[in-house]
Amino acid sequence: MAALAACAPARAESVPKRVVSMNLCTDQLAMLIADEDQLHSVSHLAADPGASVLAERAGAYVVNHGLAEEIFLMRPDLVIAGTYTTRTTVALLRRLGFRVEEFAPETGFDDIRQNIARMGAILGRRDRAVALTAALDAGLAALAASPAQGSVAVYSSNSYTVGPGSLADAVIAETGLDNIAASLGISGAGRLPLESLITADPDLVVTGARRFDNPALAQENFRHPAFRAFARQAVEVDIPDKYWLCGAPFTLIAARILKQAARRLEAGQE
Amino acid sequence: MSEPARYRLLLALLGGATTVLFVLSLTVGPAAIGFGDSLAALVSGDGGAIVLIMREIRLPRALLGLMIGATLGLSGAALQGYLRNPLAEPGLIGVSASASLGAVLAIYTGLSAAFPLALPLSALAAAVAGVLVVQALAGMHGGTLTIILAGVAVSSFAGAMTSLALNLSPNPFAALEILFWMLGSLTDRSMEHVWLAGPFILLGWAMLAMLARPLDTLTLGGDAASSLGVDMRRVRFLAVFGTAACVGASTAVAGAIGFVGLVVPHLLRPLVGARPSRLLPASALGGASVLIAADILVRLIAPGRDLKLGVLTAIVGAPFFLWLIWRSRGRLT
Amino acid sequence: MSLLTLSGIGVALGGRDVLGDVSLTVDAGEFVGLIGPNGAGKSTLLRAALGLVAARGTVEIGGMPAARLSARERALRIAYLPQEREIAWPVSVDMLVGLGRAPHRGPFAAAGAKDRAAVEAALGRMEIAAFRHRPATQLSGGEKARVLIARALAQEAPLLLADEPTAGLDPEHQIGLMRLFADLAREGRGVVASLHDLGLAARWCTRLVLLDRGRIVADGPPRQVLTPQRLRDIYAVEAFFGEAAGGLVVQPLDLVASNAKNERTVHR
């Protein structure tokens, strides 16, 4: 094991051939960038169609659950993890001498560009990364060409919303819409009491939070009579969580859905 | 002042406090609405945002606070009188935890979505089971220690089953909601909850109110009460099902809120000459005041954070409970 | 018409026969002492008469089958003083004695003039009017006992069943209580009291019922029931029998010698 650890820095320079990703966001970036047969395993969430945009492609890989024992037996030459998840597994794998690269979650489009570039460098696929970034920038430019007008609030399960410092807020900013969370002093993720939502009275309300077949109190807020009454006046937009849970070129889809809704609103007002 | 006059004054004071707190509760919330505007919105009829907030968010919250607080105070006083034990309380003897389990089973299996009445009914059934188990374990002449131990056993089991049900739910949110079921909250409850729980709560109150005279007589013990014309089977039925109906329905819409039923009757007992029949209405009003006050505090202390009600009631109630135990140690048999 | 008629009463508790085939009639004007060693079934007999334990046989109260009486109707005919002097809450003496009026009042009716008069009479008779406003739980054992007896008196039932009412009382209050029960009997009511003090039973009761192992062994005037041989057989004690101040004196002296005890076992 000591020998493995000793030669790890030397191998960091070489292109990894058996990569395991343990985080939904790194899973998706790796699937988009890695060469054929380079990526061995992705996390189970990558195969969940509610959370992953690339759920179908994930079927081609071995599924892992972020457990050290499981990863160890896969004998990867590179492990990719998120900075906030599977912390104990990462520490254990490092002690065992595995090379682990950690990616912080993206909170804006700059983060997305950096993570794409870094993933490209780590996997030895710089060209692919450059192409993805170019596509992302082209999409953003198209959005910026015709900014939408109006205010919007994200209202998720458990009355959660997102404000400045979150990826969703960055997506809203790109559409030209105004996120009411900022004026309510909410940064990152926070609770948006139903009362505050109704008094802030945004033009659009994003309720794309994923619905599960099995009930939970977390989603009772969508059934509250006061919310139903409010939603009849505002335009309700359904943006599936998966498009902005992780930052990637597909995050543009969230922005496009939002913008189309804003266009419908403008058309309705005219 | 004569004794009945003092009692009427106490009820008037408690009623006044409850009214004031109820109105205050209507004016507290994240949306900054003036005192006059908010109350005017309750009676005037245009469909603006303020009217919506007042009628659909704050009114049900205040009403549930009133109903559930009164339920906890009343059922605490009734259980204490029935079991002749100052430590009997729906939370401590496991009724709330059992009701939570019943509610959880109804909600997370999807039963209550298809058939809304399943929620209070299931909570009621589980609460009845909880009371009966405690009573079977502790018996009619059960000492304090036996009742508390039986309550701990029932609460632990019901809590574990609730956890299991929530953890097995395929909905990832479910597992996080154990907090709600164990500590209770009135955040963003709606008039639907008021209509769902209201009839059961009123039924429970009516049943517990019928216990007033028999509870007085029970001061002399079960045999003496029986010889004085108290039908003990009827008393048992009213106490068990009355408690289960109102506590079950309350828990089904707001989770388990502890200690109100313990502290309130205990504080009011000396003020009503320890008379169980007089303690019932006084505790109901006192419980309503305490719970509405706690619900105002959670909104003021941590706005926008959904602090659970049970956190506050336990901060006050648990030390009180310890003090009660400390005071009665040596007599715990 | 008798106040209470028990016919063929049998009670089994936990699979063991505690009472077997007991028949007993109590008339107005009688002060019946129910005596017998520990475990003879005295308390169970009183409880069976009140329907507090499931029993075979029939109970008639005031000529009516007990099964046809509601709990309240029964409470108007029999008052009961349990052995445990339970007072669960620190309620006032007044209120506690007033509980005796429960069967007389409608479910929501307030206390009437008749109720108040009955409570006053009971407070006076037990000499506890002086502490009528004190919490009953703070009283001494003897005071508590008197308060509870006052409660039973306030019930104003024709028949009073008392389970060891003299336990824990000093001689003054023991005799006071026996005198009270004798007075009640003279007034035309009936009293049945289970007693351990044979001296008191001999001196004050108009009739004694001696129970042993769930059966009535003797029933009659004290002088007939209490004989040296019966005390040896049933209580296993030797007793002094005498006359003083116009009444019977019975004072247990010592245990029967062990050979006599064996003889007693054989005798049975």
From TrEMBL, chain B:
Keyword Iron-sulfur: no
Organism listed in the record: Nitratireductor arenosus
GO cellular component, as recorded: plasma membrane
Keyword flag Nuclease: no
Membrane topology label: Multi-pass membrane protein
Keywords: Cell membrane, Membrane, Transmembrane, Transmembrane helix, Transport
Subcellular location: Cell membrane
This protein's name: Iron chelate uptake ABC transporter family permease subunit
Pfam families: FecCD (PF01032)
Domain of life (superkingdom): Bacteria
GO MF annotation list: transmembrane transporter activity
Transmembrane segments: 61-79, 91-111, 117-138, 145-166, 194-215, 235-268, 280-301, 307-326
InterPro entries the UniProt entry points to: ABC_BtuC-like (IPR037294), ABC_transptr_permease_BtuC (IPR000522)
Biological process according to GO: siderophore-iron import into cell
UniProtKB/TrEMBL annotation, chain C:
Organism expressing this protein natively: Nitratireductor arenosus
Chain's role: Part of the ABC transporter complex HmuTUV involved in hemin import. Responsible for energy coupling to the transport system.
Keywords for this protein: ATP-binding, Nucleotide-binding, Translocase, Transport
SUPFAM superfamilies: P-loop containing nucleoside triphosphate hydrolases (SSF52540)
Domain called ABC transporter: residue spans: 4-238
Keyword check for Manganese: no
Official protein name in the record: ATP-binding cassette domain-containing protein
GO MF, one example: ATP binding
Protein family per UniProt: Belongs to the ABC transporter superfamily.
